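1st attempt posting a full record on here, be nice pls
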Amino acid sequence: MNARPMHQTPEDSAPQRLQAFLSSRGQPDWIEPLTPDASARNYFRVSWEGRPAVACVYPEAFDKKLPWLDTTALFSAAGVPVAEVYAAEPGVGIIVQQDLGDRLLSAILETGSESNAELIDRAVRLIAKIQAATELARERRSIAYRLRFDREKLEWELGFFLDHHFGSLLKKPLSRGLETSVRQEFASLAEDLEEYSKYLTHRDFHASNLMVADDGRLFLIDHQDARLGSAAYDLVSLLLDRIKEPPSKPRLDEKRELLLRERSLLGLESIEPEAFEFEFDLVAIQRCLKAIGTFSNQAGNFGRSNYLPYISPMFGVVEETCKRIRRYPAVLEMIGVAQGRFD
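the predicted structure (as tokens):
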């Protein structure tokens, strides 16, 4: 097909924009819509240079310093598996990348296969490899190194949880006194966690953001929000995000030990197991509440009820953790209110 000039207007739909772009590049304008997960971006399977590819169509044009492109280049340079970029056109808001298939790790784990344990271990090893790329991120002046889970960011996420769980979903705000106490504890938690923010993290390292290739390799997706965070952050996300039943303590201990061993093999700073467990616990409280806020927003404001089953188990993790480490009594009271145990 001969290339021809691309003409589009801001009002063109994503499929129209993509088909015009493909035609302008002399590619077949066949597209297959794919379903994004809570994303403003539209995804399509296309044919590019005779091979299958996936096109991401942004709502509008983007800057050539788009975080996704920056972090893709960073992870690729570090040997962390991400999709290869075939074409990027900031002016029309389109990226064409390697087609990683349709096998999400989350879907595979639901099958209960005996090989699932090995896949989880590969994911844990991948977390260590991401953390080992921290220095490379600094050398490349990556946006991921310039972003950090500082106190402001952590507190904002916890405030987002309050706004959307009690506002958007339950439509029953906390009493002024309890909310004030909870926000004070959130500020203390965020201040403590800021001290741990030293390593590169994916930032959303849950099983729905990991693709499994036909050869068993894991690939990162949705990595544009990578930033510096706790050594425990991605592990918490992997083990506790989107759960319907909290994992046992022996399972958590096993995966924490694996990550510490992998970090050591890669020459990263040693962390004592007891100290790492405490760090993991603090991250688990913040991350689980942040995730509940996201699920509440999706369910309460967009009608996506498929997120609702994850809320109670993640509250359970937060409650058990607060009791075990004997911290955050206002957060415990807040959970009781959220679950209707008392007003």
